[in-house]
Amino acid sequence: MQRSNHLLLFLGLVLLSTLSHSVATETQKATPLFDYTSLLSQDAQGSESSSVPDNYCLKQENDPSDYDFFALSDKEKLLRFVDGPCSPVILVPGVLATKMQVELDCDTFKKAHPSAFEACGWNTCKEPSWYELWKRKPKKTYNLWIPDIFSPMSVIANELHPKCFREFFTLNYDPEQVDYSDRYAMRDGLLLRYYNQNSEHPNGGLDAIGDLDPKPKQPYMSDDLLYWEHTRRKLNKMGYQDGLTLFGSPYDWRRSPIANESRFTLKRTLEFLKKTTGKSTVVFAHSMGNMQMLYNANQMSQEDKDRLIRHYAAVMPPFAGSTKAALFLMGGSNVDPYGLGIPLETIRSVDSMSSSLYDLYPKPSYDLLQNEPFFDHLMQRVQAEKEHGDDDPEFWAENKAKLPYSWMPSPAETCSNDNLVNRQSNGCSIGVKNMAEETVLRVQDREYKGTEEARDEFMSRQEGPFVSKKYWKEIMDEVKADGLDSLTNPGVETTLIYNASLQTMYGLEYDYNPAEMVHKGEWADPDKQLYEMGDGTVNISTALLGPLKWAWEFDQQVKSGKSGPAKGVKLVEYCSTYGSNMEFDYSKPGYEGLYCKCLDFEQDGHDCNHVFSLNDDYLVEYLAHLASSLKNPSEDRSGAEALTNGDILDIQKQCPPLNAPFEGKDNGFLQTKK
């Protein structure tokens, strides 16, 4: 197979599918509740009145123009935030989207791994004399992910140091350790940190989850990969302070949620914010960051969740997995981030020991949940959509209210315009497939559907060339132990933000044996890809199943008149013209449309895909409204009152929620070998 040479600006398993698809004829148009196209559109109404104003989170007695906010001390800003309308925020990144650094103990590493030391072009740990021009001493700290362009471990420097990145990035694995987080370790002499962790200003971990381009930034690089940085900047303007009322949640994305540090740091950050502000927190998670959030929520007591989490916004979540993970494990060529030439063997060594990829392989959630009460109701609505589509408005007018999930718009209503050319229809629909009945992967005459039995068979056969032959069973035990396959209700108020406008893979077909291709050192691309709608990385069947389950559970709880752990759920379809009332009412399940910049002119929607959607001001503003509009008064002002300006500076420098030692673990952040 010829390796693909196109540029793949890929983070969080992003790969945009551009297969063209016909657009259905125009259907009956719904009356929008709110003209969301006016948001940030100066030519729509001549103003930006829908944008959350600067310093909005800082309580003001008079007109904001009466205040010089720049003159306020850090403590004054904190107290005004505590008394203001906004909630503290944590931003959780997806796979590949935490920047990591490695600290090098040169003597230890050189002694323990001489071949790796040499592979990076180094030959001494002593400072060379002026005449020893041939000697190369490593620096103390390197950017490991994403490596600098001119670093020895750069993904571009393959001809000079083809093995350096692999030697540093591949994890050691010890299956004998009882705690899953203890099974993974860096090599002797290496200490893993999140980006800027040991700097004078770690900025609450936020520097590690934004601006993901390699450094130094080159002229050909755009701002497409600023990632959470857009949201951070918006929240800063509203009055949020990094490392005090706004945090990132960086983690080692190679490991599954049960094995990485988010299992320690996420709740610890929630507790810190509650103590400091007296308020519960709004959590924004993107892509695989939602697996971290869901796992942590399921480990907390309901009392703690009610106390610590005000709201959870799941942005483009792969709750039931992603076919892109299967493509990784099969050795497809488009798993090379940036398309800059990372050697196949390097990616293979990293992927085979990254339990996060196994956790993202399409989950058997449909298989495991098909006997639960909500499932028949969901399939009944989906079947009606298949049979009547968008060309039977009379059926929907007569029957929509009688069908399950009647709060979702019908195919007879309009959720898009003709500008998104790859969308199947302008009509609205749930549109999910029962993945237990669909072929997720076919290799010659062997088919693997979205069932637990099929996933186990795929792994046990090591059908994917990148599946670990030695540790696949132990890694799958880890994946099953996190409990995410069953999509347990998180027990917190939830907004799902998803995209259904891009062709997105849900299945792969190989007419040959990929293992033979990879064995020859060549990439194994599928002969055919099966598509449904999604965000270019996460298809709607995997994004929607969990929230649809939770919404049904909450609806039944409300109808019963009994209290319970289920909380309100709202589905927000990004790149939808349907409209929004922006009232954030979670007393019952609901649906809203969220306008996107890709609706403005005819295009394939690339700029609004899985990752690039975080660049869109419409989405950023929606998140800003969520953070500032939910009723969340401070229950205790004493934590903020007790802090001096010096205390606040120390907190921001030390970043205790992320950097304080873990009980029974190494001192510092990401787990390392002792």
Structural features, described:
This protein is an alpha/beta fold and 674 residues long. Helix content is 30%, strand content 12%. Strands 7-1-8-9-12-15-16 form a 7-stranded parallel sheet, with helices on both faces. Strands 11-10-13-14 form a 4-stranded mixed sheet, with helices on both faces. The two termini are 43 Å apart.
What can be said about this structure in brief?
By secondary structure, this protein is α/β, with parallel strands linked by helices.
Provide the fold topology.
Blueprint: H1 42-45, H2 74-83, E1 89-92, E2 100-104, H3 106-112, H4 114-119, E3 141-145, H5 164-169, E4 172-173, E5 184-185, E6 190-194, H6 229-238, E7 246-248, H7 262-277, E8 281-286, H8 289-299, H9 302-308, E9 309-315, H10 323-330, H11 344-352, H12 355-360, H13 365-369, H14 373-388, H15 393-399, E10 439-443, E11 446-449, H16 452-460, H17 472-481, E12 494-499, E13 502-510, H18 514-519, E14 528-534, H19 540-560, E15 569-574, E16 590-594, H20 617-629, H21 638-641, H22 645-654, H23 656-659
Parallel strand pairs: 1-7, 1-8, 8-9, 9-12, 10-13, 12-15, 15-16
Antiparallel strand pairs: 2-3, 2-6, 4-5, 10-11, 13-14
Tell me, what's the shape? globular
Count of DSSP strands = 16
Query: Measured on Cα atoms, how large is the radius of gyration?
Result: 25 Å
Q: How much is the average pLDDT? A: 88
Our estimate of the beta-strand percent is 5-15%
Number of helices: 23
- Taking the alpha carbons of the first and last residues, their distance comes to 43 Å
- Strand order, main sheet: write it out: 7-1-8-9-12-15-16
State the helical fraction.
25-40%
Largest sheet: 7 strands, parallel
Which secondary-structure class do the elements indicate? alpha/beta
Q: Which segments are poorly predicted (pLDDT under 50) over 5 or more consecutive residues?
A: 1-49, 667-674
